[in-house]
Amino acid sequence: MTPDHPPSQADALAALKSLVGWWDDAGIAVDIPPAPPPALRTSAPERKSAPAAPAVKSAPAAPEKPAQDASAMARDATDIAALKAAVESFDGCDLKRTARNTVFARGNSEAPLMVIGEGPGQDEDREGLPFVGRSGQLLDRMLAAIGLDEASAYITNVVFWRPPGNRKPSTEEIEICRPFVERHIALAKPRLILLVGGISTQAMLKTPQGIMALRGRWSQVTAGGHSAPALPTFHPAFLLRRPQEKAKAWADLLSLQEKLEELS
Asked: Where would one find the signal peptide in this protein (predicted)?
């Protein structure tokens, strides 16, 4: 009969000894190798654990560069050349990261008229001067129509670096640059200010009103203790898109010419 359970190791060993004994009686010599020690039968070889990896020390964090104070830098500039150098060294505006050049100003800083636009475009970014592209050429013709040129006008913007894709500068970008713009006005001391476009008008007059409501209406800009009458008008880029509005811009220019004649 087949047993219900397979024989144990002890039973198998006893059966083997019995068989060997039977072979001995029959004159058959059989050598049985000794059984391995129990420790070798039952224990797996001991594995040595790998030594722990040495701790890697992290490099000390680089000290953060202190944020530049635009107000202090602008205040410390005692003349326009120093202000230009301060603006060029200022790294607190993200626009500078994508711009080629700092666009500060062109014209005569001692002229009676300061023209303040919005921001540099592609041509201005390439040349490092404001209003030198198509809209700048139209601005020059507009000023020439009332007898003005680079000797009698000083041209700048509310931001000094080109916004990517020629987009409008954001409120935050304008506010970052504001201390330099206001110091620029205080140092140049213009007799009159022409605000070109809605962005510059809203920024310098600190108003939410649009250019359609404000153009042709004289107001006042005060910066660093210097105050000057300011006239908002359309941006030349707007006039290139909508030439039918040039008649209104011409009326603004005639108002500006009359004011300049009164001052002289």
From this structure: none
The whole-angstrom separation of Cα 115 and Cα 142 is 12
Contact 254, 241 (CB under 8 A): no
DSSP secondary structure letter of residue 18: H
Strands of 192-196's sheet in order across = 106-107, 153-157, 113-117, 192-196, 226-233, 219-223
Q: Tell which residue, 80, 74, 79, 78, has the closest CA to residue 92.
A: 74
For the CA atoms of 217, 218, 224, 226, the dihedral, rounded to the nearest 10 degrees, stands at: 170
pTM, two decimals, is: 0.75
Give the Cα separation of 82 and 88 in Å (integer): 10
pLDDT tens digits, 54-74: 555 555 554 555 678 999 999
Series of mean pLDDT values for 10-residue runs along the chain (264 residues): 51 53 46 49 50 56 68 98 98 97 98 98 97 97 97 98 96 98 98 98 97 98 96 98 97 98 91
What are the residue ranges spanned by the domains of the chain?
70-263
d(CA 237, CA 234): 8
Q: For residues 90 and 112, what is the distance between their CA atoms, to the nearest angstrom?
A: 28
What homologous superfamily is domain 70-263 in, according to CATH?
Answer: Uracil-DNA glycosylase-like domain (3.40.470.10)
pLDDT for 31? 53
